[in-house]
């Protein structure tokens, strides 16, 4: 881990500078040597990084949904060219190019965040070894070494010896309890985030190998975090737990406001939207209107959730429009007539009875 972290030493100075700036703010409140001052500085670093990564997160969502939509076509290519791996790869690349999908886009936030993670690890390792690094001078180094979070130093690790913990002013028992609790919380938050994605925000109408891979990752990632976590300093555990909680909250917001078509989350969202429409008589909000407009534009290609939503609107005497608004069905009929030039409906002739049809018409009398 130290070798990997050293590769990103070129950004340790910016990372240490950001931490020091936040520390000067929180130090004025909690005291410069307080664990809260240094711990909140790391939390603020995460928040700042994640705010900067929001555009990449949006791209990640679009890429993930694009990959989900392509799964049936990808499966067909795999079956068609299962004996020709080269042709299979060529057809896959052709499919990505035609649809403008990049499989690596779903990994962009993690890739972009990795340098900051390893740079922070490099900074904390230097603090643990009593070395100045970046803009952290000797006085800040001593302050950081005195900072404890629930009795565990920022630079301490689960695997440290009792002597190493004592040199940082803590007992090995406190260090291991705090790190163990944080590792468990970090793994659980990762598991819950992935489970939430699989249970609520996946199109259940399409069964593909992609879904099986996601299920496997739901169990593998928390185990990886648990194993790696014992080698992370407390400060890095604070960083990773914070970013997991941010990801979980960010994903919950996306699932609630812009769910994947065909998913359980979409069914729940459209149920809430229907209640909103029946209460207000129209769609309030730009985001809601965009979703209704997208459903209208799909026409016969709507999924079961969307068809159920349109049918429920019809039962309420409402009709969704192309601009995302909703009007009463009678108004929709009137608008349709106006769009066709206001032509009056053709009047059907009055139906005759059987006796009238059998009676011959009377001859007209001539004067």
Automatic annotation (TrEMBL):
Main localization category: membrane
Any Gene Ontology CC annotation: plasma membrane
Domain Membrane insertase YidC/Oxa/ALB C-terminal residues, every copy: 38-255
Transmembrane segments: 7-29, 35-58, 217-241
Compartments, record wording: Cell membrane; Membrane
Keywords from the UniProt entry: Cell membrane, Chaperone, Membrane, Protein transport, Transmembrane, Transmembrane helix, Transport
Domain of life: Bacteria
Any single GO BP term: protein transport
Residue segments, region Disordered: 331-367
Membrane topology: Multi-pass membrane protein
GO molecular function list: membrane insertase activity
Residue ranges, compositional bias (Low complexity): 331-344
Stored InterPro entries: YidC/ALB3/OXA1/COX18, YidC/Oxa/ALB_C, YidC_ALB_C
NCBIfam families: PRK01315.1, yidC_oxa1_cterm
PANTHER family noted in UniProt: CYTOCHROME C OXIDASE ASSEMBLY PROTEIN COX18, MITOCHONDRIAL (PTHR12428:SF65), OXA1 (PTHR12428)
Assembly and interaction partners: Interacts with the Sec translocase complex via SecD. Specifically interacts with transmembrane segments of nascent integral membrane proteins during membrane integration.
Similarity comment: family membership: Belongs to the OXA1/ALB3/YidC family. Type 1 subfamily.
Functional note: Required for the insertion and/or proper folding and/or complex formation of integral membrane proteins into the membrane. Involved in integration of membrane proteins that insert both dependently and independently of the Sec translocase complex, as well as at least some lipoproteins. Aids folding of multispanning membrane proteins.
Protein name: Membrane protein insertase YidC
Organism of provenance: Streptomyces vinaceus
Source species taxonomy: Bacteria, Bacillati, Actinomycetota, Actinomycetes, Kitasatosporales
């Amino acid at each position: 881990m130290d070798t990997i972290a050293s590769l990103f030493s070129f950004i340790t100075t910016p990372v240490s500078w950001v931490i020091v700036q936040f520390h000067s703010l929180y130090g004025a409140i909690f005291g410069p040597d307080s664990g809260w001052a240094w711990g909140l500085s790391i939390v603020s670093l995460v928040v700042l990084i994640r705010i900067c990564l929001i555009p990449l997160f949006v791209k990640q969502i679009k890429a993930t949904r694009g990959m989900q939509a392509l799964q049936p076509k990808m499966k067909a290519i795999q079956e068609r060219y299962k004996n020709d791996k080269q042709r299979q790869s060529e057809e896959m690349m052709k499919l990505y190019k035609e649809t403008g999908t990049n499989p690596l886009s779903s990994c962009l936030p993690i890739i972009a965040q990795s340098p900051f993670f390893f740079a922070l690890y490099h900074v904390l390792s230097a603090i643990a070894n009593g070395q100045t690094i970046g803009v952290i001078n000797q006085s800040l180094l001593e302050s950081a070494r005195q900072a404890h979070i629930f009795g565990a130093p920022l630079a301490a690790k689960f695997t440290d010896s009792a002597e190493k913990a004592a040199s940082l002013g803590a007992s090995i028992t406190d260090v291991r309890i705090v790190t163990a609790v944080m590792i468990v919380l970090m793994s659980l938050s990762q598991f819950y985030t992935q489970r939430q994605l699989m249970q609520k925000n996946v199109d259940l109408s399409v069964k593909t190998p992609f879904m099986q891979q996601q299920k496997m990752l739901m169990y593998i990632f928390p185990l990886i975090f648990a194993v790696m976590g014992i080698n992370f300093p407390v400060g890095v555990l604070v960083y990773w737990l914070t970013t997991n909680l941010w990801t979980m909250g960010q994903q919950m917001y996306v699932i609630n406001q812009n769910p994947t078509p065909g998913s359980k989350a979409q069914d729940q969202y459209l149920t809430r939207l229907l209640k909103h429409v029946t209460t207000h008589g129209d769609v309030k909000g730009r985001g809601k209107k965009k979703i209704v407009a997208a459903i209208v534009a799909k026409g016969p290609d709507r999924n079961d959730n969307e068809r159920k939503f349109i049918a429920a609107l019809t039962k309420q005497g409402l009709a969704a429009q192309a601009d995302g608004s909703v009007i009463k069905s009678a108004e929709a009929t009137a608008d349709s007539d106006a769009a066709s030039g206001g032509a009056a409906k053709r009047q059907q002739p009055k139906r005759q009875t059987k006796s009238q049809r059998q009676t011959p018409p009377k001859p007209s009398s001539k004067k």
